[in-house]
Design goal:
nine-stranded mixed sheet; alpha+beta; PmbA/TldD fold; globular
């Protein structure tokens, strides 16, 4: 399969599949090169480099849909994917979600490659040293810096043939001063030395603030200030539940809600922003070859848009929103417009509250009701009458996402591009302040 480009390789696989009797075929090929610098005990511990090749195949015949993916050593081995699919096709039943692949549409390309990222991949140690030098006052630091270059090629039986390349930067750092810790992250298509440095400085500042004996607080209802790290993690849940397939499956807090309904504070909006070329996850076309578009999921508190591919769109009697997943529509990257508050102004609004700067172990107990819990990690603080009193330990946010969204009162004026393993897809977010949120203990 000698080809000049990965879209040509995808096109040839499409023709092979059609030749084996399938009515429709689509192939997506992702080829990436990455380098990761791992930091431990305030020094570079490991530098890893790797390349990946992923070939995804969509096939349809008589209303049946077959999806599969392999990671071959090279494109020449990708024909095995078609042969495997042929043997499996007889086992597949017709899909309730079948709809024909959409006709090709004009795609306006995006500039998603930053040459400075590509150059930094040759020797990422300088960037890693930027993280370490900015946290020299810490007892120890740990984290990782990842740089990547990804090529994506798509072809289908409707005649779509598209390619796109993109770079990526992701950094997260956890800083320790004694038993206190702070963490921050950064993710972007573009490399900003200043933002890399700010990631380290913010983590250090949070660790310094958290020094001192942490205390427990009583479970109850508190006003909360949530950092962009926490906001990003929770908005991943909202973005996931905005998928039309999540709604169809009854695994969404929007399952009983029609677009046009009020679902959040009028001060809050959430945007799927694939055409913002700075944001990690941005893309000019989706997995069906349709052009992407920036769109509000929630606008001024009102549910505006569910995320569709052609199949869910047919089920809902609407149009694709350019969010395919060949089967599961998803958000590309999320963005929250800023408010007009400074962080210290938000804290001063708390009469009895908690500031939470990081979280993990987020779980949904009831998808339709949006009942969730998440454990605070690293720097967290109890606030009384607008003044931070002391760091706190062993707390968990346990409430309902619709309540959290509805109780948002203030949003920060500064935005942060957050991406790490607890925030994926990436989110551009401010600090937020919400009233009356449940706080419990993660264990006894």
């Amino acid at each position: 399969m000698a080809c000049n480009s990965i879209s040509e390789a995808a096109e040839r696989l499409v023709q092979t599949a059609l030749g084996r009797g399938f009515e429709e075929a689509a192939v997506q090929i992702n080829r990436s090169n990455s380098v990761m610098v791992k930091l431990a005990n305030s020094e570079i511990s490991v530098v890893q480099r790797w390349s990946t090749l992923a070939v995804g195949l969509y096939l349809a015949k008589e209303g049946k849909i077959l999806l599969t993916e392999i990671h071959p050593a090279n494109l020449e081995q990708a024909n095995r994917l078609v042969e495997r699919a042929v043997s499996a096709a007889a086992q597949v039943r017709p899909s309730m979600l079948y709809a024909p692949l959409p006709e090709p549409a004009e795609v306006e390309p995006l500039d998603l490659v930053d040459s400075s990222v590509v150059k930094a991949m040759e020797d990422p140690s300088t960037l890693a040293e930027t993280l370490l030098s900015a946290t020299s006052a810490a007892d120890r630091v740990a984290g990782a810096l990842t740089l990547s270059y990804v090529e994506r090629g798509l072809a289908n039986s409707k005649g779509a043939k598209l390619e796109e390349a993109a770079t990526g930067v992701e950094a997260y750092l956890r800083v320790f001063i004694g038993e206190a810790s702070g963490q921050w992250s950064y993710g972007s298509r573009k490399l900003s030395i200043e933002n890399v440095k700010q990631t380290a400085e913010t983590a250090l500042e949070l660790a310094e603030m958290a020094k001192g004996e942490p205390k427990q607080i009583e479970p109850g209802v508190y006003d909360v200030v949530l950092s962009p790290m926490v906001v990003g993690n929770l908005m991943n849940l909202v973005g996931m539940m905005a998928s039309a397939l999540s709604v169809l499956m009854g695994s969404s807090m929007f399952a009983r809600t029609e677009p046009g309904s009020k679902v959040a504070s009028e001060k809050f909006s959430l945007i799927d922003a694939p055409r913002n070329s700075e944001l990690l996850g941005s893309a000019s076309f989706d997995d069906e070859g349709q052009p992407t578009q920036n769109k509000p999921i929630i606008e001024n508190g009102v549910l505006k848009t569910l995320l569709h591919n052609s199949k869910t769109a047919a089920k809902f009697g609407t149009k694709t929103t350019g969010n395919a997943g060949m089967m599961f529509p998803r958000a590309w990257t999320l963005s929250i417009p800023p408010g007009d508050s400074a962080l210290d102004e938000m804290v001063r609004e708390l009469k009895r509250g908690v500031v939470i700067t990081n979280n993990w172990y987020t779980r949904l107990q009831n998808y339709v009701e949006g009942i969730f819990s998440t454990i605070a990690r690293d720097a967290a603080f109890y606030v009384e009458n607008g003044e931070i009193k002391h760091p706190v330990t062993r707390i968990r946010v346990a409430d309902r996402l619709p309540k959290l969204l509805s109780n948002i009162e203030l949003l920060g004026r500064d935005l942060y591009d957050i991406s790490w393993w607890e925030v994926n897809p990436a989110v551009r977010a401010p600090y937020i302040m919400a009233r009356g949120i449940g706080i419990s203990r993660p264990f006894v």
